[in-house]
Amino acid sequence: MIMTRPTLLLAFCALRAAAAYYPLIEYSGTTFFDGFDFYGAIDNTTWGNVTYVDAADANAESLAYVNGAGNAIIKVDNSSTVLEAGIQYRKSVRLTSKYKFEIGTLFIIDALHMPYGCSVWPSIWLNGVLEPGQVWPAAGEIDLIEAINLFDHNQMALHSYAGCVQPANVTQMGHTLIHDCNDTTASGCTVAETKPNSFGAGFAGNGGGAFGLQFDVAGVFMWFWPRPSIPASITQATPTGTMDLTDWGMPSAAYPAAGCNITEFFPAQELVVDITLCGLWAGIPDVYAGDCPGTCFGNNIAGNGSNYANAYFEIPAIRTYTIDAGVAASASASAAPQTTGSASGSAAADGANPTQVTTTGGAGRTVSTPVIPVPLVGAVATILLLGLGLGL
User: Fold this and answer.
1) What is the pLDDT of residues 236-275, one digit of tens each?
2) Is residue 168 within a helix (H) or strand (E), and if so which, with residue range?
3) How far is residue 386 from each of residues 3, 169, 200, 223, measured CA to CA in Å?
4) Which residues, other chains included, contact 28 with Cβ-Cβ below 8 Å and sequence gap of 6+?
5) H or E, element range at 103
6) pLDDT digits (tens, 9 = 90+) for 297-342
């Protein structure tokens, strides 16, 4: 039987509905920071003008805390004075999950506010766990949330070695900018969000929204929903209930296995949340000048930092699910050892001006978590996704 594109899409949706995801790890409330390590070093990956604080500095500088509304605040220092001469870094935060997420994981991020402004470069992404001797992007990278300066839209991307591409004519809402995930400009295979209010002042003014990421053997798929359009499956979810994608609709970005063998290019991944400034994207003179005046450092980082009032995340929750019930049970049983650090406290409800803050936690990125393999989904899924990816 020859299946048309609409038939394939309906079949894929039906398959996803049958494949329920089990609760894995939730980052929320006073324990939000328990599952993360603080980077505690300069930005040595995108070479922004920031020093990522350790847990002690996060506490002292009120850069990572839970506010009075119970939401996690992650922010850039907006109160210290940075001189044009001397040390040219402003303090910020980079968090790396202690848990390593295998193929078969679903991520849902609920955000009320994301960092924006000239020189600002926030991202929430997955970073592949490298083996000894490997270098990026040998273990892949998946960017769910990433934009710069005064962008009004989010961008999504995969990064890999040669051999991983986004096929032409995939079924997605977004606009593909680059198909080759091994693009020589290091942009990866990039998709621009086309729904309004996915970043910047528009995102904050619209009450934020939610992002979804399906990391599966059949492919990588990403979604964005403005606050009024978040699916009922997400808004009505319970801590112990399963999640399916029946009402998620068409993804914003689709990277089916037809063009990229996910099991080959993307082993276990760490979840990363960070905010850098300037650097190898936001600070490139031609790119920066497209939105902002003067120079990236001189007109932003230097000075008293008051222009970073909007350079913060406010996140009610990040929820993760797994397609494997055994993995979910194992993670639940080992939850206590994974909470070696904590972050809690209260602050102004808007997240920008903390009053009382308490933050503790271990610095570093070398916490080891056992990885449990997730079984592959059925051959039917692969066949359907091959059809979608090849534009049948």
Assistant:
1) 999 999 999 999 999 999 999 999 999 999 999 999 999 9
2) none
3) 12, 12, 35, 20
4) 70, 72, 316, 317, 318, 319
5) none
6) 999 999 999 999 999 999 999 999 999 999 999 888 776 444 333 3
* Catalytic residue status for 146: yes
CA–CA separation, 55 and 271 (whole Å):
18
Instruction: Write down the H helix ranges in the chain.
Output: 5-18, 55-61, 200-205, 232-235, 262-265, 279-282, 285-289, 325-333, 379-389
pTM over 0.90? The answer is no
Looking up tokens 């990363």 gives 272
Q: Which residues does residue 157 pair with via DSSP β-bridges, in sequence order?
A: 143, 190
How do 105-111 and 94-97 pair as beta strands?
A: unpaired
| Amino acid found at 353 | N
Total domain count for the chain? 1
Q: What is the 3-state secondary structure (H, E, C) of 314-343?
A: EECEEEEEECCHHHHHHHHHCCHHHCCCEE
CATH number at residue 291: 2.60.120.200
- Say whether 26 is catalytic: no
What's the confidence (pLDDT) of residue 333?
Answer: 75
Q: Catalytic residue among 26, 61, 102, 141, which?
A: 141
For the residues of 220-274, what is the DSSP string, one character each?
Answer: EEEEEEEGGG--HHHHT--TTS-B--TT--S-SEEEETTT--HHHH--SEEEEEE
Residue showing tokens 């086309």: 194
CA–centroid distance for 202 within its chain? 19
In contact, 73 and 134? CB cutoff 8 Å: no
- Report how far residue 231's alpha carbon sits from residue 221's, in angstroms, rounded to the nearest whole number: 16
Q: Which of 26, 61, 102, 146 is catalytic?
A: 146
For residue 64, CA distances in Å to 205, 211, 357, 389 come to 22, 21, 9, 41
- Is residue 215 within 8 Å of residue 142, measured between CB atoms? yes
The range of the structural domain enclosing residue 324 comes to 5-389
